[in-house]
Amino acid sequence: MAVKRRAEREISEREKVVKKMRGEEDDDPLVELKLCTENIILAGIIKKKLTNSDLDHLSRVILPGKQVRNYVLPFLYPAELDEVERGNGRGGLMVRVKDLDTDTIHWLSFKKWESSGSYKLGLSWIQDFVKRRNLHKDDEIVMFWVDDDSTRRGFFFSVVKRFYPPPDPSLCEFAREFLSLSPLTPDYNSAWKERCSSIDDYLAVRN
């Protein structure tokens, strides 16, 4: 048993070294927790910081091409890959997307964006994700493809970091003008120090 644990640690350390050489970050602890809850083992995680174009009327989110090619496309059937890469005159491959945060199932279209070499998830992206989850620019999401069970085959989605914009300056001005904080409670020791003329007096009071 001890030999097995040592071997597992060595494998884990080697994986960390490889990640560091590739410039990849360790997986987000929150995502790892969700994966454990769902009993999921996956090839890799697609990370994306949302931009304005992911949130507007175009109704699609752009996924990094390299990550999709590494972590999703190898697990598609030939007919599915053909729909994603070429579209066959249609809107792409319809894929199941589970929101890990809300435990809900959605369906989006998945296809290659020819002009950039990236990939996009569309159709009801705005309604089912942007509006429903109140997503904003610079929020960070992760997505990954699960292929171990036909009943849940598809993308899994999670919001891992929210971007909170700075407060409205007008509200700050209002607070400065009309709101006031309670006065600070004087420090007990400091008050006695000010009343004592010498350190000996101070020590006498303390004792």
Account of the 3D structure:
Strand 6 and strand 7 form a beta hairpin. This protein starts with a helix and ends with a helix. The chain has 207 residues and is α+β, with helices and mostly antiparallel strands. Helix content is 39%, strand content 22%. The chain is built from 8 helices and 7 strands. About 6% of the residues have low confidence. Strands 1-6-7-3-4-5-2 form a 7-stranded mixed β-sheet. The chain has 2 domains: 135 residues, At1g16640 B3 domain, CATH 2.40.330; 38 residues, no CATH class.
- Terminus-to-terminus distance: 60 Å
Number of domains: 2
- Count of separate DSSP helical elements: 8
Please give the CATH class of the largest domain.
Answer: Mainly Beta
SS content category: alpha+beta
CATH topology of the largest domain: At1g16640 B3 domain
What order do the helices and strands come in, and which of them pair?
Elements: H1 2-22, H2 29-38, E1 46-49, E2 60-63, H3 65-71, H4 78-86, E3 93-99, E4 104-113, E5 118-122, H5 125-131, E6 140-146, E7 154-161, H6 169-178, H7 188-195, H8 199-206
Parallel strand pairs: 3-7
Antiparallel strand pairs: 1-6, 2-5, 3-4, 4-5, 6-7
Q: What can be said about this structure in brief?
A:
With 207 residues, the chain is α+β, with helices and mostly antiparallel strands.
